[in-house]
What we know:
Helix content: 10-25%
CATH class: Alpha Beta
Structural class: alpha+beta
CATH superfamily: Protein of unknown function DUF952
Low-confidence stretches: none
Radius of gyration: 13 Å
Largest sheet: 3 strands, antiparallel
Number of strands: 8
Oligomer: single chain
Number of domains: 1
Shape: globular
Strand content: 25-35%
Number of helices: 3
CATH architecture: Alpha-Beta Barrel
Order of helices and strands: EHEHEHEEEEE
Amino acid sequence: xALVYKICPRQMWAEAEAAGVFAGAPVxxxxxxxxxxxxxxxxxxxxxxxxxxxxxxxxxVEAAALGEALRWEPSRGGALFPHLYGPLALSAVRSVVPxxxxxxxxxxxxDGL
Length: 113
C-alpha cells in the first residue's frame, strides 16, 4: 500500500475528525488542493514549512483510496508531489501520529520515515 503524508496542526486535525472530513489547511484552500508528501519528501516538507512548530500530527493516507482526485505534479526542483483536488475523506487515513520536536529542534518522525 503506497502512502502519502500530510503534516497538520493537532487542533486542525481534531476539527477535521469532528467534521468527518479534512478540507485542507489555509495554504491548501488558497492553492486549490491539499498538499501531500511522499515518504521521501516529508522530512524536507517539515523543514521547509514547519520548522520550530510543535503540536503537529503526521497523517498517513492510502494514495489509492484517493482515486483520480490525487494528481502528481511538479514542485520543488521538478519533483512530483501528490496533490489532492477535493476534500480528504477520513476513510482513506491509515494512521495519525504525533510529530514532536526533538531536543535538536527537528521533528521526530516515526521509524521508517
